[in-house]
Amino acid sequence: MVMSKNTMGCVPSDTAQSPVVLQENSKAGRFYNETIVQAFTRLDASITEIERDSPAAKLAGLLPLMQNYQEDIRGSEEIGLLPNSVEETSDDAIMQVIIDLKLSRNPQFVAEHEEFVANINRQAMRKLNKSLTEVKFNEIKDTKAKLEDEISRLQFLYKEQDLLLEKVLGAQYGSTAERNLEAELSRARALRDTLAAGARAWRAAAAAAVKANSLSSAAVLSWQLISQTKKTDVAERVRLGIDTRDSLVKGAREIRTAQAALPDVSFPHCTARQLQALALTLDYMFTDMYTDERYKHASRVFSGFSERTLQLASWITEILKTSLDKDLDEIDTNVNQLASNLRGIRVNLIDEKGFSDVLYKFPQALLKS
Question: Between the CA of residue 73 and those of 170, 175, 212, 267, 273, what are the distances in Å?
């Protein structure tokens, strides 16, 4: 929430520095015959519309996610790469190693070489994870910039409205009723911002869980198809394994995104221990596919993860439907009514002062501030 009467402490002041945004949002040259009442109504409607979107609360909610992604990227960089003597993250290297070691024809060699194959696979997953995290981090950076522009615009609109009302009604504006109603509206908007931030975080977590379920379901199907291929068809098995691995790595990334959106919430499904079990199984999947018992174990782990992502998505969605969305709708209705009432009072005060039909002159000094 961004408050009027120069009380905009809820928003970082450094987000209102762009003269380009200010010039664009002032629209100073478009309302030549606009009266003071019309100008006030326009400004107030614009403020109400932006406040409804709760940009400051959204911006605050992005910061933990950005920090989480930055930590993940740094962690990937600290782990580093495998020696150059190994064809690091090339998926072709995995296939070539399986062929060279004759794992498809000599299952007894699997246990002996599984750690070597797993190291190449781990390297591939590290790079994939780092790439996925960087994409998400850049998406959030773009969203952050848009929200800062929106906050800058809101601050500017409040400044313009403040100057208009001070000129017409005086520094303290109009009446006691008007000041009391503005204070009540500010409190209601602050509450709505809090609820909106919470609901937005839960919706983001729900979306991530749904995406994780879609990815993991596709992974389970790819893994099942391996049992229908010949063990000697290394190229097809590795291709299906890569499809399985990449989908599950992406799915696990989505679950971590969901948890980062709700850092203080303990998920009943897709827990940290379950994600660790998934990661361990992924490490050895390219050798496990050549041992019947290990293949079945991996199948259970992958299917279990997929089922838990669905359970998590359902659990989050149910909380949203039964609690958060309902509370947000109620406070939103109250805020809209208070904003409408305050606008009506101020329009009446402007009319009582005899300014209803006076043409509005945009304060050019605002563009220099």
Answer: 54, 55, 20, 24, 21
The model scores a pTM over 0.85: no
CB 133 within 8 A of CB 139: no
How far apart CA 24 and CA 176 sit, in angstroms, is 35
Evaluate whether 121 touches 286 at the Cβ level (below 8 Å): yes
Spatial separation of the C-alpha atoms in residues 250 and 233, rounded to whole Å: 26
Q: Are 64 and 200 in contact (CB under 8 A)?
A: no
- Work out how many domains the chain is built from and give that number: 1
Cβ neighbours, 10 Å, residue 280: 12
Whether the Cβ atoms of residue 98 and residue 238 lie closer than 8 Å to each other: yes
Query: Percent of the chain scored above 90 by pLDDT?
Result: 53
CA-CA distance, 135 to 159, in Å (whole number)?
Answer: 37
- DSSP, residue by residue, 124-188: HHHHHHHHHHHHHHHHHHHHHHHHHHHHHHHHHHHHHHHHHHHHHH-TT-S-HHHHHHHHHHHHH
Tokens 């303990």 correspond to what residue? 266
Q: Which domain holds residue 307?
A: 31-368
Residue 20 belongs to some domain of the structure: no
Q: What pLDDT score was predicted for residue 86? A: 39
The pair phi, psi for residue 359, each rounded to 5°, is -70, 140
Residue 298 exposure: Cα atoms within 13 Å on the Cβ side: 29
Within a domain: 12: no
How far is residue 213's CA from residue 270's CA, in Å, rounded to a whole number? 11
With respect to residue 5, please indicate whether it lies within any of the assigned structural domains.
no
Residue 72's Cβ-count burial label (10 Å; 0-12, 13-18, 19+) is buried
CA–CA distances in Å: residue 116 to residues 83, 167, 232, 283: 13, 77, 20, 11
26 in any annotated domain: no
Contact yes or no for 86/122 (Cβ under 8 A):
no
Q: Which of 83, 13, 4 is nearest to 40 (CA)?
A: 4
pLDDT in tens, 100-149: 888 877 777 788 889 999 999 998 998 898 888 889 889 999 999 999 99
